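Troubleshooting: if your tokenizer reports a length mismatch, compare your output against this known-good record of 205 residues.
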Amino acid sequence: MSRSLLSSGNPVAGLSKLKIDNLHHHIGGVIIDRLPAFLYLLAQDYTLQYANGYFHRQFGSSDASTPCYAAMRGRTSPCKDCPAQTVFKEQNEQVWIWRDKLRGQLYEVHDYPYPIEKDKILVLGLGINISGQRKSRKIQETVESCHDVLHICSHCKNITEEKNKGEWKPVETYLEKHNGVQCSQGICPECLVKYYPNAAKKILR
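Known-good structure output:
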């Protein structure tokens, strides 16, 4: 089991030992370490306060003074339009797609506000490897032409390349623009039954 990064380096200023112990109890353990996804706790100064076993296996060892951009991207400065910093500002979940160019992997990342003390939060990040979900070479080529980060609205699921400046578009519009993919409207059997029960009886019988 990987050790918690909260136990070494430079922990968040003002974080009591009791709170650290509670964090260990809350997110530690064998199950967290064996998740097939990376998990981290991030401070507002970009330092990784916790990382699970998957994170260490993918990105190498770190301590609580290591910035996320150094461990994950090999950078010496913060990334532009960091979704985690948006969580600190807005205290709302951020969902985004990250293409890890260094290792050739694709992740769907969920960043959540994680309260630790009054008026103090960390960002709890969960990264799911979706590289194996590429259905065809066409989808892979679309991903290759995309920006490193695609922001996904957690409500309507529209996407954009630049959260504050870019235009939010439906997924099918984005795919058509970047790879010439033509999309058509349809309805799955489940939605047909749910929204058009009378028609479903005739069509699905």
